Amino acid sequence: MGTLSGQVALVTGAGVGIGQAIAIELARQGAKVAVHYASSAAGAHETVGEIERLGGSAMALEARLGVVEECRHLVDSVINHFGGIDILVNNAGVTRADKFENVTEEMFNEVFQLNMRGYFFCAQQSIKSMEERGGGSIINITSVHGEAGFTRHSVYSSTKGAIIAFTRELAIELAPKRIRVNAIGPGLIEVPRYHEIPNYTTEFGNSLIPLGRVGRPKDIAPTVAFLASDAADFITGQILYIDGGTSAKMALDWDQGDKPQ
Q: Which residues form a coiled coil (predicted)?
């Protein structure tokens, strides 16, 4: 019996990377898992296949989470299929990088509609079922970009900061319903799209992290499972950075060691 046996989870953006690892780990802990995707159909069905290979129960669902009605339909489909929902992992998002002065209205809308609107309305549609089942857990995936600045990410970091504020506010508002709301802020987690960045290598990524290595999707998944479980029953409104020490490091790389007089 896993720690999440009898629970139903929805993981958005679970066809690739972090979302895929989270979905598989929740299933490994005993949850029935709805695997959402927008464009990664093959990856979503791969996730479902891996869960079924482990002896779990899963289904794949497509939705464009920048559209409110599709957020609602997605959650309702999970509830209708599995009988309810206990865990929502808001993970689906998009990254767009450009200089602040080059950001267009179209780019702004695209990033905010998915990264914030999708989180907001999937959560809103889930809470009635969670309350009926005695409570639940919402886990929002934010980023170290919500903690500190990084060039060319003005829109993306704005959404991640908004997710942090949303997490804390929602935790207080939903506490009487016994619905806990927390967020995880990944650091540099090596996913397939990183290798599309010019001149990126794993070795370069390793050199940026205080612990000496880049993160992997599997570094995030166990903490999500913990926050969803009864072991975290007294934890809500918290932001946990999983980043190998990145957010703890002062940006000034300045050796101030003693010098001989």
A: none
- Which residues on neighbouring strands pair with residue 139, listed in sequence order? 89, 182
What does the alpha-carbon distance between residue 23 and residue 19 come to, in Å, rounded to a whole number? 6
Catalytic residue among 143, 154, 157, 229: 143
Active site residue 160: yes
The pTM score is: 0.95
Active site residue 259: no
**Alpha carbon distance 121, 123 (integer Å):** 5
pLDDT, tens digit, 9 for 90 and up, residues 93-150: 998 989 999 999 999 999 999 999 999 999 999 999 999 999 999 999 999 999 999 8
CA dihedral sign, ordered 188, 190, 192, 197: positive
90 near 140, Cβ under 8 Å? yes
Active site residue 143: yes
Q: Which CATH architecture has domain 8-243?
A: 3-Layer(aba) Sandwich (3.40)
> Vertex 141, ends 107 and 85: CA angle to 5°?
115
Nearest to 245 by CA among 194, 157, 185, 183: 185
Of the candidates 119, 126, 129, 160, the residue annotated as catalytic is: 160
The residue ranges of every structural domain in the chain are 8-243
Catalytic residue among 37, 156, 157, 229: 156
Find out whether 32 and 56 touch, Cβ atoms under 8 Å: yes
